[in-house]
Specification:
2 copies of one chain form a homodimer. Chain A has 4 helices and 12 strands; from the N terminus they run E-H-E-E-E-E-H-E-H-H-E-E-E-E-E-E. Chain A has 177 residues and is mostly beta strands. In chain A, the strands form 3 sheets. In chain A, strands 1, 2, 3, 4, 5, 6, 9 and 10 form an 8-stranded antiparallel β-sheet that branches. A two-stranded antiparallel ribbon of chain A has the order 7-8. A two-stranded antiparallel ribbon of chain A has the order 11-12.
């Protein structure tokens, strides 16, 4: 993993891919799958729909840190399986054979097989009572071998849409670029 | 437009497509482009990153209603252009020749050329100070002629990724389906 400009990390999340979110709590690491997330600013500040019904919630509340990892389609089945079991019952890093490496700021580790990772600090819990946590990106990392790999998006019905072609419309971005 | 089951409307937004958001204020309709949005629950409750720097903000604060429309790729260039000008200067519905029709609950209208529309009520403004509004879906509408059309996702750098193949992984959704 190579360090990636934090001010550009929003570009990794803006298309709405399914992501992995890793925590560390009481000597144990865990990971969950998240598809409800959004950017709140470019620094980046990131909202994720996670509530007390999620096993990772307690780790986020207590330790206030996590890593967001962006899997490519080679990890698609594994990512869905990670989202369909609980860290309460399963040591997911071991069962799903995820390779990890240390980040710079937080105890949860980067997932080496992903396209990118963002180390995050929890800055808000249960925002507005909507079971929404707010994260501040501290550092971003990119896997040079995976740059340009396709991500996937949950459709909510058990099907997933894979990235297709990319269209360059920079010439129409007259206000924002 | 045909009415669509509201409890399934989250499936329209979960993949993270670029959306249009229409308002009506002081006798004038307006529309903006949004790519930072997420689901907060299945009813659906929807968060959108919109702040007082957006011209639509005042309409949302005052009238507390809007329509979310999901454009397919045939409206991609138009959607980006809508996001690169302000309703303060331009009558966007007229300039971009958007066809509209009445919804059931709110004054802003459905955009007939889109895949789907969701009539929404504003339930929270500036959530947690993050320039985030919260919407509650009241009714959903689908365009039978556009069902299955590809949507597009902002990459944040002026490029847009179009939906590719859809993969069915329902057999792995053991916990949630």
């Amino acid at each position: 993993m190579k360090e990636f400009e934090l001010s550009k990390a929003f570009e990794l999340l803006e298309p709405g891919p399914v992501i992995l979110l890793s925590t560390f709590y009481k000597g144990r690491k865990n990971v969950m799958t998240v598809s409800w997330h959004m950017l709140l600013d470019f620094t980046p500040i990131i909202a994720c729909s996670i509530g007390s019904y999620d096993y990772s919630y307690k780790a986020l509340v207590e330790n206030r840190e996590c890593v967001i990892s962006i899997p490519a389609i080679d990890l698609m089945e594994k990512t869905i399986q990670i989202g369909n079991c609980s860290g309460q019952d399963v040591d997911k890093f071991s069962v799903f054979e995820l390779s990890t490496q240390k980040g710079k700021y937080v105890k949860p580790q980067l997932i080496s097989d992903c396209i990118a990772n963002i180390e995050c600090q929890v800055v808000d819990i249960d925002l507005g009572g909507y079971n929404c946590i707010v994260l501040k990106g501290l550092a971003a990392w990119i896997n040079p071998e995976k740059v340009g790999s396709k991500t996937f998006h949950a459709k909510g019905d058990g099907t997933f849409v894979i990235d297709g072609d990319t269209i360059d419309l920079k010439h129409l971005m007259t206000k924002w670029m």
